[in-house]
Design goal:
Layout: E1 8-18, E2 21-29, E3 35-43, E4 46-54, E5 58-66, E6 71-75, E7 78-81, H1 88-100, E8 102-103, E9 108-113, E10 124-134, E11 146-152, H2 156-161, H3 168-182
Parallel strand pairs: 4-10
Antiparallel strand pairs: 1-2, 2-3, 4-7, 5-6, 5-11, 8-10, 9-10
């Protein structure tokens, strides 16, 4: 295996620092000696995503509008968090309850993934929650309008294959989580 070298950071500055979007411009030196003076990095919070399964073997999904691509998507409950202020597990539990009204006593971490490490800084922490129960109503942010949908576990693969479920983090959590349960 060939030894690879890291890129050398020469200079870095935040060129957009808004509460909803942060972009950093890095000047870097490549291992081959070439320089790039405008490598842009999207600085994003980590994400906690939970695969919640009810005692009736149904998965709790949220369906919501995503403005960037102007469409509605079926996803697993998830949300951003600052890992310096909150654990991934507590963020996952919080997002599950806020977005769906469901709770669970214990969750299991199944993976930590990177969506797009070439340009984004964040990690996505995937959790499995079994035997979730509905205890209340949603407690949504001002930007959220979410429909809660229950889908039997045995119907999920078909919905991935036909494109009804097509968000990368959700698909990864479903494949990893359901595989974990088969063991």
């Amino acid at each position: 295996m060939t030894k690879l070298d890291k890129w050398k950071l020469i200079k870095s500055e935040m060129v957009l620092n808004h509460r909803w979007c942060q972009v950093r411009k890095d000047e870097i030196e490549l291992p081959n000696g070439k320089f790039i003076d405008d490598f842009f990095v999207h600085v994003k919070p980590d994400v906690a995503l939970v695969l919640p399964i009810t005692i009736n073997n149904e998965i709790v999904f949220v369906r919501q509008y995503r403005h960037a691509v102007d469409d509605f998507f079926m996803e697993l409950p998830a949300g951003g968090f600052n890992p310096e202020k909150e654990s991934a597990e507590s963020a996952a539990l919080r997002e599950l309850e806020e977005e769906t009204g469901y709770v669970v006593g214990e969750i299991k971490k199944i993976a930590t993934l990177y969506d797009r490490p070439s340009k984004d800084t964040n990690r996505t922490h995937l959790f499995l929650a079994e035997n979730v129960v509905k205890v209340g109503e949603q407690n949504l942010d001002v930007t959220e309008e979410i429909e809660v949908i229950l889908i039997p576990v045995d119907e999920v693969s078909g919905k991935i294959e036909n494109g009804e479920i097509c968000v990368a983090g959700t698909v990864a959590a479903l494949l990893l989580g359901l595989n974990y349960l088969r063991k």
